[in-house]
């Protein structure tokens, strides 16, 4: 049976339709995924992301350990900041993409994807070796609520009560004449975090997200004594308090609770990769166009370094492209990408009819040589996608398809 977040019973009361995702019973949608998508693009939406993993790494050599275990230079991340990175195999295959928060001099919070949380924890355990470090899986007792959209900061200003720790690197520090909450929320930089209280509940507040909009993610340790982790019975938990407060504060803006369906179309429009689709152990960071995350120039050793360095020097075997179509027929995962003569170039990894743009968008891998200038899958070229036996034209573009700054 899939596990349930502390908010599961609340989602059921709201009429959510559920789906098994990463071993968790998660809201797919509540009423209309299109309305939920548009709420985030136009105003604000609230997501339960408690299926995501939380792994706390502490100890005198925490930074050195993470430098070894992950491909990025985590020791360079300033207190209060966060870093998007990956954990890879020795052959360069991506085990997971994740975010690491620097919470203290010797304290880090690593957030892997739901389906990979246990795998990442086990990989960390195997990689500890002689490092003086402690690794604890806190996934079961941690809830994560995301407030995303152009009005997200206004919602956070209404529900954030206090700032208990705001490192200068987060951009959230206030001077003597400023309101500390206003300074913390409005001054918080992207990929930064501070500790505070939200609706009276102690929390870690981060300015991160997976929608292409401004947004915040709120980490809460469950406080309901009647809640058994993974059962969904935490209606009186701190997570439930924060969830209800966020929805109440967002009412003037037309807030909606949002499910995984809207989250997927939002991240696709923003050109953000999803593990199991654009990322997997069959793909290196170089293949995914994310080789810059691997600190091969500043770290002499980390798991997967030799393979990733070789991939950088040789060049990728495959290339991730963006595709824009016409009409209403969306390319889906696994559909074949072909040149105009019908020769196979690769296949789609994610695709949907974009609610914001009104036309189909997709991402997919093609042979790297095909994506080179002058190749059949170079930017600006027209390829076809086989959709249930019929060929539909798509234009090759560079993701993202949607950018809120434009």
TrEMBL record:
Protein purpose: The glycine cleavage system catalyzes the degradation of glycine.
A GO CC term attached to the entry: cytosol
Family: Belongs to the GcvT family.
Coiled-coil blocks: none
Keywords: Aminotransferase, Methyltransferase, Transferase
Binding site for substrate: 217
Biological process (GO), any one: methylation
Naturally occurring in which organism (per UniProt): Corynebacterium provencense
Domain called GCVT N-terminal: residue spans: 7-294
Subunit structure: The glycine cleavage system is composed of four proteins: P, T, L and H.
This protein's name: Aminomethyltransferase
Main EC class the enzyme belongs to: transferase
The UniProt record lists the keyword NAD: no
GO molecular function, one term: methyltransferase activity
Gene: gcvT
Residues annotated as domain Aminomethyltransferase C-terminal: 319-402
EC number(s) on file: 2.1.2.10
Entry-linked InterPro entries: GcvT, GcvT/YgfZ/DmdA, GcvT/YgfZ_C, GcvT_bac, GcvT_C, GCVT_N, TrmE/GcvT-like
Catalytic activity from the UniProt record: N(6)-[(R)-S(8)-aminomethyldihydrolipoyl]-L-lysyl-[protein] + (6S)-5,6,7,8-tetrahydrofolate = N(6)-[(R)-dihydrolipoyl]-L-lysyl-[protein] + (6R)-5,10-methylene-5,6,7,8-tetrahydrofolate + NH4(+)
Highest taxon in the source lineage: Bacteria
């Amino acid at each position: 049976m899939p596990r349930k977040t502390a908010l599961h019973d609340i989602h059921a009361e709201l009429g959510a339709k559920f789906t098994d995702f990463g071993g968790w019973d998660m809201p797919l949608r509540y009423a209309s995924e299109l309305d939920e998508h548009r709420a985030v693009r136009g105003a604000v939406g609230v997501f339960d992301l408690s299926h995501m993993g939380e792994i706390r790494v502490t100890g005198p050599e925490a930074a050195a350990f993470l430098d070894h275990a992950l491909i990025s230079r985590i020791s360079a991340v300033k207190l209060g900041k966060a870093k998007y990175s990956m954990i890879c195999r020795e052959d360069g295959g991506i085990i997971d993409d994740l975010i690491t928060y620097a919470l203290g001099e010797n304290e880090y919070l690593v957030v892997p994807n739901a389906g990979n949380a246990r795998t990442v924890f086990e990989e960390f355990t195997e990689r500890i070796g002689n490092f003086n470090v402690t690794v604890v899986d806190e996934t079961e007792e941690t809830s994560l609520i995301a407030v995303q959209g152009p009005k997200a900061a206004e919602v956070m200003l209404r529900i954030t009560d206090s700032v208990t720790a705001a490192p200068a690197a987060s951009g959230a520090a206030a001077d003597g004449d400023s309101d500390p909450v206003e300074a913390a929320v409005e001054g918080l930089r992207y990929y930064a975090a501070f500790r505070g209280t939200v609706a009276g509940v102690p929390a870690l507040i981060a300015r991160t997200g997976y929608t292409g909009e401004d947004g915040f993610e709120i980490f809460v340790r469950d406080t309901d004594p009647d809640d058994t982790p993974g059962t969904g019975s935490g209606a009186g938990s701190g997570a439930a308090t924060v969830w209800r407060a966020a929805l109440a504060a967002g009412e003037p803006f037309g807030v909606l609770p949002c499910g995984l369906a809207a989250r997927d179309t939002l991240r696709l429009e923003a050109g953000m990769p999803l593990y199991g689709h654009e990322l997997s152990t069959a793909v290196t960071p170089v293949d995914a166009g994310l080789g810059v995350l691997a600190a091969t120039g500043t770290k002499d050793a980390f798991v997967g370094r030799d393979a990733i360095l070789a991939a950088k020097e040789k060049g990728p075997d495959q290339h991730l492209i963006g595709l824009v179509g016409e009409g209403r027929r969306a390319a889906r995962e696994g559909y074949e990408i072909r040149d105009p003569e019908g020769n196979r170039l690769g296949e789609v990894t994610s695709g949907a009819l974009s609610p914001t743009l009104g036309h189909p968008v997709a991402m997919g891998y093609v042979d790297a040589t095909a994506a080179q200038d002058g190749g059949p899958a170079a930017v600006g070229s027209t390829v076809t996608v086989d959709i249930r036996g019929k060929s539909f034209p798509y234009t090759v573009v560079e993701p993202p398809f949607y950018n809120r700054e434009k």
